[in-house]
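Issue 218. Parser rejects a valid record. Input:
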Amino acid sequence: MKQEYMRELADQYKEALTPLLRYLPWFEEHAGMRTGSSYDGSLDGNNTMSFPVYDSTVLSFVKEAAKSSFMDRNYAYIYSRKRIRTPEDERRVIKTATIREWDVLCGILSKYVLGGNTKAYLWTQAVQENIFYLVLNKMREIVEYWDRHLE
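Output the parser choked on:
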């Protein structure tokens, strides 16, 4: 019974994760880099309110991830339950996550994807701090592990 449940769970995760995995090499390549900037209109002589400008790959990823089943609007609860406060804490939790902490991985991903809609710096921070890459890579590792061990 447990084996069958784990197989179903891994299959569901794999199906939802597959479209996001195409961004993995890009996130790995751009880890630690600043992938956004701020445009203030000063180049053309106009003074306007500044607004963030993002790399198109980041925007595509965020749009696709926001549609996925991994989004958890209650991610703040996961952060308080796991006492996650800094990017170092996030990386530590991601590194040790198993299939049992899948909700934690989704919570971390949700913080940056959903939170970036209101806090412009979060999308850029997720790339700079390597969070998007680490979460996707850990999810891939978990799905592959259960795929292999259940066949």
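Fixed in the parser; the record now loads. The beta strands are 36-39, 51-54.
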